[in-house]
Amino acid sequence: MATSVTLPALGESVTEGTVTRWLKQPGDQVAVDEPLLEVSTDKVDTEIPSPIAGTLLEIKVQEDETVEVGAELCTVGDEGESAGSSDGGGQESAPSEEQQEEQSAAEAPAAAASSDGEDEGDRKTETETNPPAAHTDGAPPAQETQTGSADTAPEAAASEAGTSGGSGSGTSVTLPALGESVTEGTVTRWLKQVGDDVAVDEPLLEVSTDKVDTEIPSPVAGKLLEIKVQEDETVEVGAELAVVGSGEAAPSGGGEAAPAPEAAAPSEPEAEPEPTEDEASSDGAATASSQGEAIPAAAQVQPDAGAESSGESAPAAQAESTPAPAAAPTPTPAQSPTPAPASAGPGVTGQARAGDGGGDGGAYVTPLVRKMAAEHNVDLASLTGTGVGGRIRKQDVLDAAKAAQEKAAAPAAPAPAAAPAAASGAAPVTPSPLRGRTEPMSRLRKVIAKRMVESLQTSAQLTTVVEVDVTPIARLRNAAKEDFAAREGVKLSFMPFFAKAAIDALKEHPSLNATLDTEKGEVTFFDHENVAIAVDTEKGLLTPVIKDAGDLSIAGLARKIADIAERTRSNKIGPDELAGGTFTITNTGSRGALFDTPIINQPQVAILGTGAVVKRPVVIDDANLGETIAVRNMVYLALTYDHRLVDGADAARFLSDVKARLEAGQFEV
């Protein structure tokens, strides 16, 4: 009896893990406790061992896929046991496996060996044979031959209208609930087009809400049959976005459908470069409709060949029929010499989802990253990914683009030294690609624009500024930053000190940690400090919240600030983490600004802006020298408050307490 291998609990707060590499392939022999695969979580990278000795029968989760704790990863049992499972109670597993891009190529030989020596290349015939042997509803084999699956026969017969006609038998992809207060979302970009093959959990589209921008993955493997909501359209939570179904649903038409895929494979050698172009078009651009079914066909050939190259040896040992392994390698000679020299870069890695071994070191590149690389003229082949399993992340592309700009500007730097008079004219200028363009506002920018105006129209806002000498903190930070980084894993900046001083002052000045309801005539003073931290992202300003910040030390605040900032910029922050703040801090000095007049984040009543810390000469009162001039580390703190609730004297007292705490420098790090 086969044994399931599941993702174990790898920590109290770990809820999911990503398969980074399979160490064994279907058909390989494994011993008890021998590692089967590598898994990465947000806490630890580890190997998952086999609970029993036997043969790896089936891989359920492909590389780079993320699953919940407890999810089935693979099955291990006796050699040949997979044949019994596919003919018996698992009669529906054969069509499901056909829909997997890589998994079907690895498992089809084993299934063929248990089906009276059927040809592996004719997978259509295999599904026509298996269901009648297992089903007891009396459905004639001829009916299943026309549709390719007994489960989809009624739907396929009812929707025989070409590529979009298969939507009736597909799985609906709906807009999920992305937070407690999120009721709608806007489709910002489709990463896949109608006819494209998709894997389980592969991103289909990008959605923007008033809380967060995120990708919506496919719940099943198959083909994108229909797009229900176009880009820039806004729909309610639960609305149908797309339909994903069987890859056979779109072209199916009659009894001659079975030989079609077999004939399509050898007819594509001249068009082999098309999968690379199809991968590039999946970044958001529409696939050329004039190509008809040629692109989906080519895309279907490439994954099969890739899977055969990585897992061909193990299934070949199990299959008893000679034609089975001979059919799948047919497209391999045509594919290998043609696309490999032409695109050793992102096009190859985009398809190497489960077969690691592509031209870029096997790193998986998401369509979003490929699109961003194209926009910034970044060569993905030259990058080293910093993500899980060497994956190239969006930040890697942005860093490479920034480095390229700095490198382009560097040669012009020595010129002003030789000719100071012409310095202003000699500096190179790189015009922005936005010059002369008119484009629609993003969903996030619309939300920011609306809320900023509403905030100014809702509350009576004014700003008070104080100057603070943070020289004691600068000295403390310089003395402790190396040990702190080694101990805590994050850098020690000025921000945790500003946050700690403000949080302590809020406990003594509750009117700034409150909310005002003018309709009810009530003021609510909070008994906790949920501090929102403004984070600058490429899409706009977001304010993730540190809950119960009053309970944290300097080290705890430093870790939290670094964590939410990184996850916000990498689009991994949750919608609920962007709500519930009672007070906001914005670091306006991160780009050198001395101070600003920040706008209140409603329904809060105050926001603190921290300017740049700069060294400058100031007058100080020395115990021995009296008044003297010294170079000190100075910063401006700007507090914007709602004058409906907070008076100027209240704001000044709050800032005075914050200043006193910072200038005393009595912090434990």
Automatic annotation (TrEMBL):
Keywords: Acyltransferase, Lipoyl, Transferase. The keyword Transferase applies. GO terms for molecular function: acetyltransferase activity; lipoic acid binding. Signal peptide: none annotated. Residues 2-77, 170-245 form the Lipoyl-binding domain. Residues 92-115, 147-162, 246-268, 305-325, 411-428 have a biased composition (Low complexity). One of its GO terms (cellular component) is cytoplasm. Residues 70-181, 246-361, 411-440 are annotated as: Disordered. It comes from the Bacteria. Residues 326-340 have a biased composition (Pro residues). Residues 364-401 form the Peripheral subunit-binding (PSBD) domain. Belongs to the 2-oxoacid dehydrogenase family. This is Dihydrolipoamide acetyltransferase component of pyruvate dehydrogenase complex. It comes from Nocardioides mesophilus. The lineage of its organism: Bacteria, Bacillati, Actinomycetota, Actinomycetes, Propionibacteriales.
